Amino acid sequence: MMPWRMGEGDPQRDAEGRLRNLLAIEGLREGEILEILDSAESFLGIGERTVKKIPILRGRTLVNLFYENSTRTRSTFELAAKRLSADVLNIAVASSSASKGESLLDTVDNLLAMQVDGFILRHPEAGAAHLLARHLGERAWVVNAGDGQHAHPTQALLDVFTIRHLLGPISERVVVILGDILHSRVARALIHALSILGCPQIRVVGPRTLVPPELQGLGVHVFHELEPALTGANVVYALRMQRERMDSQRLPSLEEYHRRFGLTAARLRLAEDNAVVLHPGPMNRGVELSAEVADGPQAIILEQVTHGLALRMAVLARLAGGNP
Amino acid sequence: MMPWRMGEGDPQRDAEGRLRNLLAIEGLREGEILEILDSAESFLGIGERTVKKIPILRGRTLVNLFYENSTRTRSTFELAAKRLSADVLNIAVASSSASKGESLLDTVDNLLAMQVDGFILRHPEAGAAHLLARHLGERAWVVNAGDGQHAHPTQALLDVFTIRHLLGPISERVVVILGDILHSRVARALIHALSILGCPQIRVVGPRTLVPPELQGLGVHVFHELEPALTGANVVYALRMQRERMDSQRLPSLEEYHRRFGLTAARLRLAEDNAVVLHPGPMNRGVELSAEVADGPQAIILEQVTHGLALRMAVLARLAGGNP
Amino acid sequence: MMPWRMGEGDPQRDAEGRLRNLLAIEGLREGEILEILDSAESFLGIGERTVKKIPILRGRTLVNLFYENSTRTRSTFELAAKRLSADVLNIAVASSSASKGESLLDTVDNLLAMQVDGFILRHPEAGAAHLLARHLGERAWVVNAGDGQHAHPTQALLDVFTIRHLLGPISERVVVILGDILHSRVARALIHALSILGCPQIRVVGPRTLVPPELQGLGVHVFHELEPALTGANVVYALRMQRERMDSQRLPSLEEYHRRFGLTAARLRLAEDNAVVLHPGPMNRGVELSAEVADGPQAIILEQVTHGLALRMAVLARLAGGNP
C-alpha cells in the first residue's frame, strides 16, 4: 500500500539526465511537465481534424503490453500511437498464465529482439514499470500505464493539463481532492503534479479512515468535512470509491458515504462560481458525486478523456524522440 | 420477436433528412439504396488489385464495437475500413462483463471523447443500434452490424447487390425465401429491401409454424410446399435453420425438415435455368440445402461474401463522408 | 509422431514449380533457401532504422490465422507483415470452438472471398498447412507457422540464417543438436535444412529413448553421451525439453537429464572456441542448459529472434510476390 521506493539512480532518466521513461510523477521537473503540457496543447487540435494523423512516429513500433484488462486505457494509448502513425502491437497477457517477474522480462527481451521502440505497460504489481525500465536501460523506453496501486502518471498529467487548459495557471487555483486519498494512486500522483506546478492550496477531504491527518506532511490541507473544504475551491476532483473499502470496514456504507461526502449540486455551490469537477472515471453516480453533478455543466469528465488522448500523444512523441 | 419499433423522429437521418446512420432497411429510400449499390460496384474492383487500398478515409478512426463474438462480421468490417485507409479500433466486450444499456453508452461516451468518427456495433439486444444512434446525435455515426433478432442491414444490402450484380434489375426477378421467416432478421430485412427496389414477386416458403399465413400482409406470397414456390423462380434464398427451433417444438426434426423443405438439385431444377442460390452463411449442409446444391454452380454464397466487403466499403465511405 | 507424408504433387509449388507456399523444409532446393537467406540479410538492417517500414507489400492483406495461442510467433509475423506495410488481420480461433478440418476450410473460404492475399497458419494438427495449401491452389499462399509436431519451417530457416550470419557458410561447420530429437519438429526441420546446405557433420545427442540409433539413416551422427558430441563443434543447438516426456517414462527426471545432458559452461568448453549456442525458446534454464550458458556470451538466442523477424519478412515478401 505504501508508495514504491526507487533504488539508486533514477530509472526515469538516461545517463545525461534526460527524461527517458515515464514511470511516476515523482521526480519530474516543473519545466519538463510544462513542456509536455504545451506539446499536448498542440496535439489537441489534431483530433478535431478530418484527417487525425500526423507522421511523426511513422515506422516506429510501440507495444501495448497489458497484464490487466483495461479497454479504456488500452484504447487511448492505441489511438494516440496510431494518430502519430506508429505501428502498434497489442499484447494481452492473462495474469493467470504469467508467472510474475521473470515472465515479464523474458517477454520483453523477445520483443526487444524484434526491435520495438517502446512499451506501454499495464501490470497489477506495484513497481513493475520501474523494474522494466531498469531492465531496458537505453534499449527502449516505457510508459507506466498503471502498476497496481502505485502509479499511473499520464492520468495526473492529463488532470493538470485539463485544469490549466480550462482555468489557466495551476499556481492560481485552489484544488480539492475528495475521497479515498490513502489508497489512491490517482490522488498521490495528482498531489505531486499540483505541487510541482506551484498550486497554492491543495485540500484533501474524506473520512479519517481514508484521509489520515498525517497526510498534512505532504503539504496538503486535510479536511474531514466536505463543506469547509469546498468553500473557495476552483477545482473539485472526486475519486472513485472502491467497493472493497466497505468490506475492509473503513467505511460504514456507500449511502452513508454519499450522505456525508457525496458531491451534490447544493454542496458544489459552496465552491467558486466557475469551479470545475473532475473524475478519473468510471464514475459511481450517487456515491462520490450525484448524477446531477456528474452530468451537469461544471463536470468536465469527458474533456479529461479528450485531453488524455492529446497528453498521451505528447508523451509518446517525446519518449519516442519525434518532434511535433 | 416482433420488429423493434422506432419512436418519434428517424434515428437513421440527420436534421436535413440525409442518411446519417445505417440501422435497418426500413425507412431507406429506393434512391439511397441504389446509390449505395452503385458505389459498391465501384469498390468491387479494388479487391482485385494488387494494392487493395484507397485513401478516402485516411486518418478517420472507426470502432468495431462487438458485444457478441462474430469473427466473420468483424473481419469484413475491419477489412472494409482498412481498405479505405481508416484506422480501426477493435473492442470486444464480453457480454458477461457488460451490464446492459448504461455500460454501452458510457463506453461510447468515452470513445466519443477520443474523437472517433463512427461505430460498427454488434450487440445481442434488439434496438441497441437505435439506442446508440439517438444517443450519438450528430456527434458520430453508427452501422448496425446485428442487434439480436432485430436487424443486420448490410446483409440485406449485400444480398440485393449480389442479385442485381449477377441477374440485373431486381424489378424483373422472382425471389423465393426459404426457411424460418418468422424469426429471421435476414428474411425481414431482405423482404423490405426487395420491396423498396420493386421486386415483382417475393415468395416465402416453409412450415406453417415458421411461415405463418399472416405474413401475406407484408406483400409476400406464402407457400407451405417447396415445389410450387420454386417454379419460375430466379433467386432462391435459403435461410440458416436454427437448431433451437427444434427444441421449441416448432419443427419435428432436421431430417424431416430437409425431407420436406431442403433445397436439393432435383428441386432446384424446378426454378429457372439461370436461377441462383444465396445463403447468409454459415450453411447447414444437409438441412436447408443439400451439399450438392451448396457446392454446385448455381450457389453464389462466396460471391455474397466478396460483395459484402465492397458493400460495407460503400456504406462506411458514405457515412464517413468520403467520396469514392 | 511420424513425419506427415505428402501425397502426389508438391503442395509447396505452383504448376511451374515455383515456391508458392512455405510448408516444410523438406522439398526446398538449396538455391531457394540461399535466396531467402540473402533476402533476409537485406531486411536485417530495416529493424535498425528509425523508420522500420518499407512499402513493398502495401495494400496486401495477410491473415494471421491462429488455432493455438502463441503470442511470440504471432507477434513476429505481425511485425514482419507491418514492416512490409501489409495490412494484417489477426484471427484467433479457440480450439474448443473449432470443429476440425471442415471448420478451417470454411473459415478460409470466407476469408478468400474477402480477397486476402495469404495466410500464416498455426494449427495443433499435423498436416493442417498442407491441407490448406492443397485447398487454396493458386488462390492464395500459406506459411506454416507450426502444425502440431509436424513442421515450423521458418524456425529452421532462421536457425541456419543465424549460423551463416555469424559463422559463415554452413558447409564448413560442425553442428550438434541436443535433446529430444525423436519428437521435435524443430530438430527434424533443422537437420533437413543443414543437409540441403551441405553441412559436413550433423551430430544428434540425447538419451536412447529420445535419440534412437535408427536416426543414423537421416545422415546424422548419433551420440548418447554429450562430451564426445561436443568435441570440435562449432554450433550447439539445445532443444526445449518437454515436460510430458517425463510422464511418458522416456526420461527418469529433469535433474537426471540435466546431470547427463545439460549444457553447462564446463561442457561447452569442449566445443570450438568461437562455438555458438542456439535454442528455439522459451528456455528451461537448469534443464537443457545451465543459466550460465543461457545468459553467457556464446548464447545467441535473442539474435535468433531478431533474425527470425528479418527471415519472416523475406518469406512473406517472396510469397506475396513483392521484391525487396
From TrEMBL, chains A, B, C:
Where does the Aspartate/ornithine carbamoyltransferase carbamoyl-P binding domain start and stop, copy by copy?
20-164
Which GO terms fall under biological process for this protein? Answer: 'de novo' pyrimidine nucleobase biosynthetic process; 'de novo' UMP biosynthetic process; amino acid metabolic process
Q: Sorted alphabetically, which keywords does the UniProt record give?
A: Pyrimidine biosynthesis, Transferase
What positions does the entry give for carbamoyl phosphate binding? R72, T73, R122, H152, Q155, G281, P282
- Lineage, top-rank taxon, reads Bacteria
**Which EC numbers characterise this protein's activity in its record?**
2.1.3.2
Among Gene3D superfamilies, the record links this protein to: Aspartate/ornithine carbamoyltransferase (3.40.50.1370)
Which GO cellular component term is one of those annotated? cytosol
First-level EC class: transferase
Q: Which reaction does it catalyse?
A: carbamoyl phosphate + L-aspartate = N-carbamoyl-L-aspartate + phosphate + H(+)
Q: Please give the Gene Ontology molecular function terms for this protein.
A: amino acid binding; aspartate carbamoyltransferase activity
> Which InterPro entries does this entry report, sorted A to Z?
Asp/Orn_carbamoyltranf_P-bd, Asp/Orn_carbamoylTrfase, Asp/Orn_carbamoylTrfase_sf, Asp_carbamoyltransf, Asp_carbamoyltransf_Asp/Orn-bd
| Transmembrane spans | none
Domain Aspartate/ornithine carbamoyltransferase Asp/Orn-binding, chain residue ranges per copy: 174-318
- Sites where the protein binds L-aspartate: K100, R185, R240
**Pathways involved:** Pyrimidine metabolism; UMP biosynthesis via de novo pathway; (S)-dihydroorotate from bicarbonate: step 2/3
Classification via HAMAP family: Asp_carb_tr
Subunit structure of this entry? Heterododecamer (2C3:3R2) of six catalytic PyrB chains organized as two trimers (C3), and six regulatory PyrI chains organized as three dimers (R2).
General function of this protein: Catalyzes the condensation of carbamoyl phosphate and aspartate to form carbamoyl aspartate and inorganic phosphate, the committed step in the de novo pyrimidine nucleotide biosynthesis pathway.
Checking PANTHER family in the record gives: ASPARTATE CARBAMOYLTRANSFERASE, ORNITHINE CARBAMOYLTRANSFERASE, MITOCHONDRIAL
The entry sums up its family as follows: Belongs to the aspartate/ornithine carbamoyltransferase superfamily. ATCase family.
- Tell me the protein's name: Aspartate carbamoyltransferase
Q: Supply the source organism's classification.
A: Bacteria, Pseudomonadati, Pseudomonadota, Acidithiobacillia, Acidithiobacillales
- Gene (name only): pyrB
